[in-house]
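Anyone opening a protein record will find just a pair of labelled lines. The record below illustrates this layout.
***
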Amino acid sequence: MIILVFFLVHWYLSVLMQTVFLHRYAAHQMFTMRKGWEKVFYVVTFIAQGSSFLSPRAYGIMHRLHHAHADTQDDPHSPEFSKNLFDMMWKTRLYYNDILNDRDTISARFKKGVPNWPWMERFGDRWLVRVAWMAIYVLVYVQFAVSPWLFLLLPIHFLMGPVHGAIINWYAHRYGYTNFTVDDTAKNLLPFDFLMMGESYHNNHHKFGGRPNFGGFRWHEFDPAYPLLKLLNSLRIIQLRRGRDEAYM
C-alpha cells in the first residue's frame, strides 16, 4: 500500500507541475507571476519530477513549436512522422536537448517570455542529480515493497516527465473524440480526465490554445488543474490573463 501511494503521489505531483508550470505558464503564458514565485515553482517542479526534471525553458519553446507546426515534419513530436511511441520519444529527446544546450536555430518569436533560471536548469539536468533521485526511489522500494513485481514501477518513476508527455503526444493524437475541427489530429483522450489533470482534453486545447480551462465543453469534462489556478489567482500568487481564448502565435 505504501508503494502504491508513493507512486500515485509522484505521478500526480509530476503531471500537476507539468501542466501548470511547464505547459500553461512556460509555453502558453496563460497567467503571470512575480519572479520570486517563479523560482518557487521551479523548485517545486524539480522536486515533483525528480530524476525526469524537464527544463521549463526548453519545454516551453518546444511546445510552442508543436502548436505552430502540429502533425507536420516541423512538429517536434508528431506520431505522423514516427515509427512508434519509442521512436517519437527518442526524437523528442534529441529536439529537447538541442534547445536545452542552445544548439537550435529556432526563431526568436518562439522564445519570447519563457521562464529561465539558468542555475536550476543546469542543476536539474546534471546526471549526478538525476541518479541521486533514482537512488532515492530505489531505497523507498527496498524499504517498503512487499512484492518483487512492484519494482517494475521504478522505470516509470525514473522517466515520469517524458512518460506523461508521451501519453498525450502519442495517444491523444491517435485515440479519443473531438469537440472541434482543428488542423491536426489532436483528440480528447479521456471523457473524464482522472489521469492527466486536464491534459488529455487535447482537442479542446488545440482549438483554444490560450484558454486556461482545458475542459468544460461537455458535462463530463472536468479539468482538475483549473480550480487550482483559480485558487492561486485569488491568493494573488498568480494573475490569470483575461480573454485568453486564442491559440498561441
In short: Residues 102 and 187 are 32 Å apart (CA to CA). The first helix runs from residue 2 to 27. Strands lie at 31-32, 239-240.
